[in-house]
Prior knowledge:
Layout: H1 9-25, H2 35-39, H3 41-50, H4 55-59, H5 74-77, E1 85-89, H6 95-104, E2 109-114, H7 117-134, E3 139-143, E4 156-162, H8 171-181, E5 182-195, H9 201-204, H10 207-211, E6 218-219, H11 220-229, E7 233-240, H12 242-250, H13 253-260, E8 272-280
Parallel strand pairs: 1-2, 1-4, 2-3, 4-5, 5-6
Antiparallel strand pairs: 5-8, 7-8
Helix pairs in contact: 1-7
Amino acid sequence: xxxxxxxxxxSVREAVREGYAKVARGERTSCCGxxxxxxxxxxxxxxxxxxxxxxxxxxxxxxGANMGLSCGNPTAIASLEEGEVVLDLGSGGGMDxxxxxxxxxxxxxxxxxxMTADMLAKARTNLAAYEKRTGLRNVEFRLGEIExxxxxxxxxxxxxxxxxxxxxxxxxxVWREIARVLKPGGRIAVSDLALLRPLPKEVVxxxxxxxxxxxxxxxxDETERMAREAGLAEVVLRRKPEYVRALQTFEDPLYRTIVExxxxxxxxxxxxxxxxxxARKPAAAKACCG
Length: 290
C-alpha cells in the first residue's frame, strides 16, 4: 500500500479503472456479467434479458453499447418523463443512457459520467448510431468520478446507475453527490449489487472480485442507511435474484472462482443479490407566514 494512499482507496479505484478499460478494449476475460457476455454480442444480449431488459430494448441499442455489465434495468423503474434531465453514473458504453434518451425526448437530456477514458470513447463512438436511429441529440458523456460528479448542484431530475456504486471505495461520498446534484423532489432509480451477509475475507481480498462488482458490495441495510444519511427520503429497496441466476446460467469464471472460496454447501445466492433502489430528494420547504 502506498504511503500517499494509506487506506487503499486509490489503489482500489485504479484497479477498477484499469479492469474496466480492459473490458472496453475487449481484453478482459470476466466482468460484472459473464466472460462470454463481455466478448460476445449474442451472449451479452441474452444476459441483459436475463437481468431485466426486454428484447426490444436490447435490439434498439447501438452495436457494442451492451457489454454484459448490467445487474438490473434502472430505466425500467425510473418512470422517466418528457423533458427530464437524467444522470447515468458509470455509464460505460452508454447502454442505459441510450435507453433513457427517447424517454425524455427532445426537450430532455441525458448525461453519462464514467471515470474510464476507454469506456467514454466507446460511448461517444456509439452516439452517432443512436442519433441516426432516434433523430435525437440529447445524450452526452463526461469524464469524471462518481465521487466527484462533473455536474452542477440541483440540476438533475433523475439519477440512474447500473452495477456501479458497489465499485466505489467511498460509497457514502457517492450518495452525498447524488443528493447534491438532484433537484428538490428529484429521484433515483439504481440497480446495484448488495450483500445478504458478509463475504468471507478471502473473497473480499480478491481485487478481481472488486473489478467484478462483488467484493465492493455492502449489506442491504447499509445501502439504505447511506442513502438516508445523504439526505434522501422515501427509500425503497427490492431484492432481485435474477443477476445471480444469470451468472450461474452463463457460468461466469469470476462467479466460479468466488464460489470456490465460499464455505462448503453455500452458493453465491446466499450472499449476493441484485438490488433495485428508489429514493427521492425532499422538495424544498414552502415559504410561509409572509
